[in-house]
Amino acid sequence: MANPDSHGVGEDEDGRGAALKQFVSAGRGRWGDVPEASWNDWRWQLRNRISTPDQLARLLPTLTPEEAAGARLAQRRLAVGITPYFFSLIDPADPWCPIRRQVVPRVEETHTAPWEMRDPCGEEAHSPVPGLVHRYPDRVLLLATDRCAAYCRYCTRSRLVGSAAAHNFQAHLTAQLDYIRQHTEVRDVLLSGGDPLLFADRKLDRLLAAVRAIRHVELVRIGTRVPIFLPQRVTPGLCAVLKRHHPLFVSIHSNHPRELTLEARAALERLADAGIPLGNQSVLLRGVNDDPEVMKAHVQKLLMCRVRPYYLYQCDLIHGSAHLRASVRRGLEVMEALRGHTTGYAVPTYVIDAPGGGGKVPIGPDYVLSRNGDRLVLRNHEGRVFEYPEASDGTPLPAASRCIHEPLPA
To answer: Is residue 136 among the annotated active site residues?
Structure first.
């Protein structure tokens, strides 16, 4: 992709989509001399993360002035942290590389638009105890840690995650669990942060057991980007721990088909083989996945990894994210290119997390064109318009549905 506003116009889209759907290894990049055992050790990957401006400049000598300035200023907002594995996916020759844009800071992050917020989802207003968010009636978000394997530059929780001031959520675990015990309406607990899969197996096992021991908790979910940033972490031991705590669901976070490497696919298959339902949450990002052909390749590739596309989020209004935020109009165009053009299993729900704590609001192309007392007028993915008869009380009328408009030939 030449720049964030280029969407492949005039390219052979079938050929490009097929290329994007190929599974390839991340390789080693600049770490070719690292022993295989070290490279495949998730702890080695964490110890050797790229986290300073000097490391970035040495490993990515093609840093643009905007990236170099962003790296120098990053500690003021959100730390730099990129695993060697994920760094190996960056195209050093392409300043608009979709992997690069997600994890390499830019000076634009220091610019705050008037409508951007420190806490765009209003989590703090719905936090009865530190590290616990109770925004929806029957579920809570439990922030287990403030650390991630790598740091997305559009992170909604950049006020809490990867900052110089550590947030020790674990110190509040007793209060978090007590709150859940006292609120019997809570049936669903989402563990996030940060990334809970960075915990050692034994520690994660204890946390899951403590949540599962609460009688009214019916299911536990984990939000993680580990299979994408650090697939080496998805070991047989980790899968065995997770398998002990069913029903357990895992939501991963992948944004671009190039993130779905052979290594990531193998990690996801290990989780699926452990009986864990997998969903994916993407964020619509300008110059990364706001391209219909890229998104179609991505969701189809997710299904090949046994992952169901779940949500496509409009990028939250977090401070310093304007340069990555695609328009809602563009998001609707992307969704229009999916519905009816690929299997329904591949179509996520496009949502906006309403600013200030309003929760997820699903949006989509307008397929209901009008509605009155006795009929609906509907549009399908081809642009054909249909009339569907319906009584005012919702009882279908005997008259058949019919097409009332055909689009003009292209």
So the answer is: yes
- Residue 9: what pLDDT? 40
In this structure, what token pair is assigned to residue 61?
Answer: 């000598």
Residue 347: other Cβ atoms inside 10 A: 18
Q: Up-side HSE of residue 73: CA atoms within 13 Å toward CB?
A: 15
Is 179 one of the catalytic residues? Answer: no
Q: Is the dihedral of CA 90, 91, 92, 96 positive or negative?
A: negative
Residue 11's pLDDT is 46
Q: Is 243 a catalytic residue?
A: no
Marked catalytic residue, from 155, 239, 305, 315? 155
CB 152 within 8 A of CB 318: no
Q: What is the pLDDT of residues 89-129, one digit of tens each?
A: 999 999 999 999 999 999 999 999 999 999 999 999 999 99
139 has catalytic annotation: yes
Q: Interhelix angle for 236-243 vs 201-212, to 10°? A: 10
Whether 41 sits among the annotated catalytic residues: the reply is no
316 as an active site residue: the answer is yes
What residue has token string 């779940």? 310
The tens digit of pLDDT for each residue in 346-384 reads 999 999 999 988 899 999 999 989 888 788 888 988 889
Domains of the chain, each with CATH number or no CATH: 21-110 (no CATH), 124-362 (3.20.20.70), 368-405 (no CATH)
Q: Is 365 left (phi over 0), alpha (psi -120 to 50) or beta?
A: beta
Given 139, 206, 308, 379, the catalytic residue = 139
